[in-house]
Amino acid sequence: MLRFIFPLLVLSPGLLLAELSVPHFFSDHMVLQRERAAAVWGKADAGVEVSISFKGKSASAKAGADGKWRAQIETGTADTTGAVLTISAGKDKITIQDVLVGEVWFASGQSNMFYTVGRSPEYAGLIAETKLPALRMFNAPLVTAEDNQEDIEGTWAASRPETVPGFSAVAFFFARKLHLELGVPVGVIKSAWGGKPVETFTSREALSTLAGTKAMVEATLKADKEYDPEKAKAAYEVSLAKWKETMAAAKGKSAEERKRLPKKPEAPKRPLLTEGKPGVLYAAMIHPFVGYTMRGAIWYQGEGNAKPGAVPYDQTLPLMIGDWRKRWGDEFSFYYMQLANFHAPSTAPGTPDPWALCQDRMRLVLGTTPKTGMAIINDVGEANDIHPKNKKDPGERLARWALAKDYGKSLVYSGPLFKRSVTNDATIRVTFDQSGTGLKSRDGGPLKRFEIAGADKVWHWAEAKIDGTDSVIVSSPEVKAPVAVRYAWAANPEGANLVNSEGLPASIFRTDDWDDVEAKVDSGTAKALEDRRALATEIKALSAQRAKLDRKSPEYKEVNKKFQELMAKFKATAPAKK
């Protein structure tokens, strides 16, 4: 019998030899969370005992049938002296050098979190003099995946003039303030990708629990199932050829003659490998880190969701936070950036704006989701650039929340936040939290960007005066019986100048729940446009296929017939000219 069992043992996948390994972020120069049992995990031979030692402490774990193992080791107090973390399994051994113990934070989001220190020229002097060996960052690459991944490339680096230019600027200034204030090592894991909506950083399992995002998941899964790489390639080649023709024709012409040139078409990808699709970046860039012991997360995102018809951000952001916390098994702190001011300044009160609406929905998350904080930055943006160069103030404002809430520092940690409003005849008194020793005007002039309305829902610019340390009295001679107030309700509320004693700006807010805040989206029109885009893609693919065929062949006639039918349908569904 034994001679038959032995070959089975050799061929059994679960019993094949597996080299001892750990994910890339368990590597030289890493930072472990202080005063916690830090999780460490990896793979080894099935059933083997894995031993971990660090600074006189030890822990062990047994690899499962799939070779996976996970252990927790006590880290002790903060330590700026690098120590060795050793992982052993039988004759295999991994030695991780220069491991510090301190505070660990996870940084994610889209382009303003990805934005590096080196992109802002004004930080050149700071970069040159930065030598903070105990402030370290792990930079994750830009990758996609269909299924949840267990590892991701990347290395840890200490803050030096040659490394800091490639660090996330917001994360660097956040960590720098913590490091200098607390005097302990700070490690940041940065995993961000520009231009992407919150839904792509959230698991599809979580997204499927909310109606609006469930529809996105279902649409993506359907598109992936129907994805035809040959058709997609053919359509791409047609689009690319047309783009090249357009660019060639524009060469040598003036800007006025060229008008707006089209973007170069992107090579086709499977929907479940496309970075902006639901759950794709969660699978590739968030899931590998799940369980890494840390104090909390910082987040700068929302630009990709500030658009008409978006699922409300005060639903999608809490969904993601809850998803992450559940998977980590830890109610860690989560601090995020409110969107900065952007676009041309508005000049009329009561103007609906998806950017302002997203900013306000961000504010609402503070009241619904525990252990969250929001940095207000409606004073650092740039009208013509969605990427403000000032990243120091945003990063340090996030750090204020952490210093107050996680590290027990007594300080004003936010700009003024709406608390309540009370109507009194022709005025409305608005009271704020986080006023410090008193509210004030940033420029010393009258308060601006307050709007007021009566029951008719017609908005007027208001007179606003500070009364006491934490209240503002709002009124207008044009509104005899006011019922609602808004402040800084614009993508770029130029002139908004209410700040607290620390000079931190007040957040956008509204006291009403009226439906005039969002531009209406005609779902029927949107669906029709989506259908026409799909039709155009199919027509391009057929055109490319037809061009390769002999015009006299039966195949050509068949393809051409379908092509003509789709062209007729495309023309028939064209939107009416106004």
UniProtKB/TrEMBL annotation:
Listed GO MF terms: sialate O-acetylesterase activity
A biological process from GO: carbohydrate metabolic process
SUPFAM superfamilies from the UniProt entry: SGNH hydrolase
InterPro entries (alphabetical): SGNH_hydro_sf, SIAE
Transmembrane region(s): none
Name the record gives this protein: 9-O-acetylesterase
Location of region: Disordered: 251-272
